[in-house]
Amino acid sequence: MSDMNSLPLCGIVSEQQNVQDLFNGVDKNYASFHRSRSATGYNAHSHVSDNPRNIPVLFDITKPPVPNDVNNARSAPYRPHSNDHRGNPHYPVPDGERYSRKVFVGGLPPDIDEDEIVLSFRRFGPLAVDWPHKQEMKSRFPPKGYAFLLYQEESSVHRMIEACIEEDEKLYFCVSSPTVKGKPVQIRPWKLSDADLVLDASMTLDPRKTVFIGGVPRPLKAIELAMMMDKLYGGVCYAGIDTDPELKYPKGAGRVSFSNLHSYIAAINTRFVQLQLGEIDKRVEVKPYVIDDQMCDECGGEQCGGKFASFFCANVACLQYYCESCWGTIHCYPGREFHKPLVKEGGDRPKTRSRWC
């Protein structure tokens, strides 16, 4: 997490900079909108010219204008079976959007098996079929009526989308099984642009005012997460959906950064919150986002040989990083002996350690 560690502290946003103005898509104060993420963190200061997606000035966040290079590409003939773009992530796609190669398909017939799913969708390109705990189940039938299509090429996803039927802003495609013919199933592709939302490109995001959110519903977009968290706590300046590095598909977790300490403390004190939006109604866990390359705030590394801090204390009386030595010293004082340290647990998820004293 070296990128986040190098970020300076976040400035306080004026209360007049209401996040709802951005969601309505009419506030020109956010005309410099820009999304940017790296594999290890995120940065609100990249220039638009550095952005490979070349995201233009924002006026309607739900339907951003198409970049010029994509418009130019549309005038050229599209050859989906050409091999000259294999493995090229910058290959211009037909509608200007970038998608994950992993696609959710739901509402499958109960008697459809893996081979029949492949047969239904392989017309768009080579693919594999997966579902949760598939290897452990050793079954060829998706147990809950849904599965994931894993395409080799992103262009296959675009061809599938073009073949779908759209109804009520949802995509459907007809499949057949031994007992069901032509059943519409829901196709839910994931747009890469839905993974991040930076509300003000002039701000530096502060990891010490950032929360980790576990159990995020996979259909949830960054803008929707930002709206719900801002409604609950206010002061949201960034929202991101964590995606896996290979397929760029949501992992079921996210991060939200706040512009002020009050909103951050309110969020971590809640611990669990119910996210409700449309068909989404899910209880998620909110924890401080723990950085793995911070020095001890108490000794600056003097007591631990210059090593990074091992623990973070999320209690509002602390909100600091500590090495093992300083944790034991500080948390033996009355009132602090029951504080619990947080450490990193597999990627971005923080976990609670047993009490120290």
UniProtKB/TrEMBL annotation:
Keywords: Cytoplasm, Repeat, RNA-binding
Key word Transit peptide present: no
Molecular function as annotated in GO: mRNA 3'-UTR binding; mRNA regulatory element binding translation repressor activity; ribosome binding; translation factor activity, RNA binding
SUPFAM superfamilies, per the entry: RNA-binding domain, RBD (SSF54928)
A single GO BP: negative regulation of cytoplasmic translation
Matches recorded under Pfam families: CEBP_ZZ, RRM_7
Main location: cytoplasm
Span list, region Disordered: 72-95
GO cellular component term of the entry, any: synapse
Subcellular location: Cytoplasm
Domain of life: Eukaryota
Presence of the UniProt keyword RNA-binding in the record: yes
Domain RRM residues, every copy: 101-192
Protein name: Putative RNA-binding protein orb2
Source species of the chain: Lygus hesperus (Western plant bug)
Gene: orb2_0
